[in-house]
């Protein structure tokens, strides 16, 4: 026996949100009678029926899914005869479910006010875009509108410049599921009161509820959360990773998970004690970027650039984007990923090429043609970027709080990208990045010298930052020699700590 056996439901719904609720209730054992208009029936009967791959015996996949386990009856609710038939059914039923636009059920005289007079135990449920009352109640809404208006689209995808709808219609599905929850709650309450009640479900309200902790974070910080793709703002590693034979998903949410992952991967570099806890894994982020890379010769750069251009042409790609490679010590390079948009600004590239990449991407988006070819792009000089984070320069422990002072002076060849200022609050809830400082020089030595001068004169109080660490790295002999790889920071931190211990002893 299923839990809802004996419960009878009249399902007046159409499209997705309402029919999904009726489907779930039918799956739970309720007797669900779908009430359809005369003639063609509910509009989704015609969806996909002409697609042989997505239809069966004259029914499309859409209708088959949402109306499984349901019975059906055709009634003209606008006629006296049809209304009488409907009222007779209400006498024998427990729930009437609809997702008509606000006001329609009252015009048809099938709202809770009327039906309660016929059957005091009747439970009615309406699923609408913006609720049955309020300033936006008369506005229609479908899944796309619900996701956009409710904020879900703003945190989905890879970047904030391109809001993405969820692949699943969570606006409609969420509305249907919340309708089910409301109906089940009313059934339980009726057992003690012997009275029915009305349930008013708003797709917008549901979306706000589904924002969950993201909404709370916004309330606490005043900042809008941004999309981070498949990653997580706390847990690391937590993402989709490309492999030789496809993609894998790794989601490490505890240090015990991390230990188990190490046993599977058996990668020596990952056994670094720095990564042993979540905080250390999260803070293993970029500190310094520079362009051009000291590890790549002009000849190799030209070769890799040709491969990138050929790849873009092969797929007829016309936009700004990035290709990423890994380079080993023998000079062999390995394709890592292609980003068909800019995830972040690339100031070091802009400084050495003289091209505003973000501006160019916007121009392409509006249909403008670029006035140059790839072969026209020439690199001049050298640029270094230091990412100043609100973290301990020794332990990378976050250091949120109020900036008492933020004074970073520019100068020749220095660019400062920041939101920070005195009395500014650095939130603990998001990325700890406070500023990007970019220094340009005629060569690498001049760029390093300008960066050291800029950071040395910077005055930042109220919180800890990574500026002291940046200064130590910029003064390091190995860094000056261009002896840089993915393990540089790990070795640097160990050597620095050993020097500190030796000095103390």
Mean pLDDT: 89
CATH arch. level architecture of the largest domain: 2-Layer Sandwich
Q: How many distinct domains? A: 3
Using the coordinates above, name the CATH class of the largest domain.
Alpha Beta
Rg: 31 Å
Biggest sheet details: 6 strands, parallel
Continuous helix count: 18
Strand content: 15-25%
Can you give a write-up of this model?
This protein is of the alpha/beta class and 505 residues long. It folds into 3 domains: 8-221, 3-Layer(aba) Sandwich (Rossmann fold), CATH 3.40.50.10540; 238-282, no CATH class; 288-504, ATP-grasp fold, B domain (D-amino Acid Aminotransferase, Chain A, domain 1, 2-Layer Sandwich), CATH 3.30.470.20. The chain contains 18 helices and 20 strands. It has helices at 17-27, 61-66, 80-92, 104-108, 112-118, 143-149, 170-193, 203-211, 213-221, 255-265, 278-282, 298-314, 347-353, 357-365, 444-457, 467-474, 477-480, 488-504; strands at 8-11, 31-36, 55-56, 59-60, 70-74, 95-98, 123-128, 198-202, 238-243, 246-251, 288-291, 322-327, 333-339, 382-389, 401-402, 405-407, 414-418, 425-426, 433-441, 459-461. The strands form 7 sheets. A 6-stranded parallel sheet has the order 5-2-1-6-7-8, sandwiched between helices. Strands 11-14-19-17 form a 4-stranded antiparallel sheet. Helix 7 packs across helix 8 (203-211). It is elongated and about 90 Å long. The protein starts with 7 loop residues before the first strand and ends with a helix. The model has no long low-confidence stretch (mean pLDDT 89).
């Amino acid at each position: 026996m299923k839990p809802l056996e004996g419960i009878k439901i009249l399902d007046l719904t159409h499209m997705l949100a309402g029919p999904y609720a009726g489907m779930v209730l039918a799956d739970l054992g309720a007797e669900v009678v779908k009430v359809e208009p005369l003639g063609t029936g509910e509009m989704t009967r015609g969806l996909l029926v002409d697609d042989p791959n997505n239809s069966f015996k004259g029914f499309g996949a859409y209708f088959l899914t949402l109306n499984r386990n349901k019975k059906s009856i055709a009634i003209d609710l606008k006629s006296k005869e049809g209304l009488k038939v409907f009222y007779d059914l209400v006498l024998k039923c427990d729930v009437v479910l609809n997702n008509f636009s606000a006001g329609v059920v009252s015009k048809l005289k099938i709202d809770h006010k009327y039906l309660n007079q016929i059957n005091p135990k009747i439970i009615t449920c309406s699923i609408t875009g913006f609720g049955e009352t309020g300033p936006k109640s008369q506005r229609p809404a479908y899944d796309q509108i619900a996701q956009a208006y409710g904020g879900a689209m703003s945190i989905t995808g890879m970047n904030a410049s391109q809001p993405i709808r969820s692949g699943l219609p969570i606006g409609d599905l969420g509305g249907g599921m919340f309708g089910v929850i409301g109906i089940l709650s009313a059934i339980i309450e009726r057992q003690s009161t012997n009275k029915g009640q009305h349930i008013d479900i708003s797709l917008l309200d549901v979306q706000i509820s589904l924002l969950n902790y993201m909404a709370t974070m916004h309330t606490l910080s005043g900042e809008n959360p941004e999309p981070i793709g498949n990653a997580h703002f706390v847990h690391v590693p937590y993402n989709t990773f490309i492999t030789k034979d496809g993609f894998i998903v790794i989601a490490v949410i505890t240090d015990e998970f991390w230990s188990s992952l190490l046993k599977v991967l058996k990668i020596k570099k990952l056994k670094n004690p720095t990564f042993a806890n979540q905080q250390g894994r999260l803070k293993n982020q970029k500190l310094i970027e520079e362009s051009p890379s000291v590890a790549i010769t002009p000849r190799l750069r030209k070769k890799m650039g040709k491969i990138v251009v050929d790849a873009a042409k092969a797929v007829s790609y016309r936009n700004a984007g990035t290709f990423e490679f890994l380079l080993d010590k023998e000079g062999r390079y390995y394709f890592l990923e292609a980003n068909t948009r800019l995830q972040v600004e690339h100031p070091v590239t802009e400084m050495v090429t003289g091209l505003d990449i973000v501006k160019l991407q916007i121009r392409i988006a509006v249909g403008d043609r670029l006035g140059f070819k790839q072969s026209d792009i020439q690199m001049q000089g050298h640029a270094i970027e230091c990412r100043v984070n609100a973290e301990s320069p020794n332990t990378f422990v976050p250091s949120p709080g109020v900036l008492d002072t933020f004074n970073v002076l520019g100068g020749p060849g220095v660019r400062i990208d920041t939101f920070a200022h005195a009395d500014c609050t650095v939130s603990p809830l998001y990325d700890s990045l406070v500023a990007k400082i970019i220094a340009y020089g005629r060569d690498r030595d001049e760029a390093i010298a300008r960066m050291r001068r800029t950071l040395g004169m910077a005055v930042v109080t109220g919180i800890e930052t990574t500026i002291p660490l940046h200064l130590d790295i910029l003064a390091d002999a190995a860094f000056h020699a261009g002896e840089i790889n993915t393990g540089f920071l790990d070795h640097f931190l160990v050597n620095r700590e050993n020097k500190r211990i030796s000095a103390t002893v």
